[in-house]
Design brief:
Layout: H1 13-24, H2 28-41, H3 43-57, H4 67-83, H5 94-106, H6 111-127
Helix pairs in contact: 1-2, 2-3, 5-6
Biased composition (Basic and acidic residues): 11-20
Region (Disordered): 1-20
Amino acid sequence: MTSKSPPKQPKKVEALKHDEATRKNISMAEYQSVMAEEKEKNPVQVAYERKLLESVELGEWQSVVNLPEEIAKYQQYAQSQINALEPVSIELPINDLQTLRTIAQQADTSVALLMASILHQYVASQSSPQS
């Protein structure tokens, strides 16, 4: 029985930590202490950054040919979305609002943006064709 060669793996986490500590010119112990504090502050953000780092290490990202032009294009898209927003006022049970605040804090975003995202996802799921 033959086995397939394993897929390309990102650098080992310890090697990445060592590289980062070296680049920042601090000791590994100091670096690990800072990283532990960061993880305690916002574990969702740390997990996201770790996934992003793995994606970059696997070569899943490509450079943009004309960066200034692309930035301008997406700034225009963002501005048109901001201009298309309409404020809404709602009343929620205090427990729901507190839960939303906690989730927003963990996701490092505002409650308003979190609520808009949740509502958008719901509306999009309701308007898509049902299987």
